[in-house]
Amino acid sequence: MNLCISPIALLGTSADPPTYGHEVLLKSLCCLFPKVVTWASDNPMKEHYASLNTRHHLLEILVQELKLPQVEIRQELSSPQTIKTLEIASESWPKSDLVFIIGSDLVGQIPKWFKAKELLVKARLGIAPREGWPVNQDDLKVLRSMGAEIDILPLKIPATASSDIRVKPDVSQIPQAILPIILQEKLYGL
Fold first, then answer.
1. Which of 5, 58, 91, 137 has its CA 20 to 30 A from that of 76?
2. Measuring CA to CA, which residue among 145, 41, 47, 59 is closest to residue 102?
3. How far apart are CA 19 and CA 113, in angstroms?
4. How far is it, in rounded angstroms, from Cα 181 to Cα 50?
5. Burial code of 145-163, b = ≥16 C-beta within 10 A, e = fewer?
6. DSSP annotation of 107
7. How large is the average pLDDT for residues 14-38?
8. Are 34 and 7 in contact, with CB atoms under 8 Å apart?
9. What is the 3-state secondary structure (H, E, C) of 29-96?
10. Residues 183, 140: Cα–Cα separation, whole Å
């Protein structure tokens, strides 16, 4: 008998800034999972423009504006080390199946993450295909050889990228819920 309760989608994101793609992903995950948990994080493989506190605030506003009851923001999951995030999540929801969500653009990076093999057995890997970043089958083979259980999610996430907005500001790629704050604070060159 399986004593696990419903699966939980875990979505950590740099959110630097949150984009239209983040909004679409959160909404789409709600169609697949009864509970979606998100947080802003510091990715040690990226250089961040805004502080973690600012990015968390922007993501929190986006989540509130979505008004989706199954989405919650849990900033205490934030850690530069995914293994630590998954340990905290396992303690918070010990009887749940955890599905760690990543965009298809990150698949090839996972083997380089701190304690990658350990984190791959702590949660399933849910890959959200992003336009412009096809899932590389060789990368999937590597992950499976490391013990990963992988789900390619039936989603289509737009090609918007926070890094593109930081290089070439484009208000059309920023969710309306957070645009006034970004403009008021003069963030991201807007």
1. 5
2. 41
3. 24
4. 13
5. eeebeeeebebebeebbbe
6. G
7. 96
8. yes
9. HHHHCCEEEEEECCCCCCCCCCCHHHHHHHHHHHHHHHCCCCEEECHHHCCCCHHHHHHHHHHHCCCE
10. 40
> Would you say 50 and 23 are in contact if contact means Cβ atoms under 8 Å apart?
no
Helix (H) or strand (E) holding 117: helix 116-122
- What are the pLDDT digits (tens) for 48-92? 899 999 999 999 999 999 999 999 999 999 999 999 999 999 999
Cβ proximity of 160 and 19 under 8 Å: yes
Structure tokens at 58: 């922007």
Nearest to 81 by CA among 128, 53, 41, 117: 41
H/E segment holding residue 144 = helix 137-145
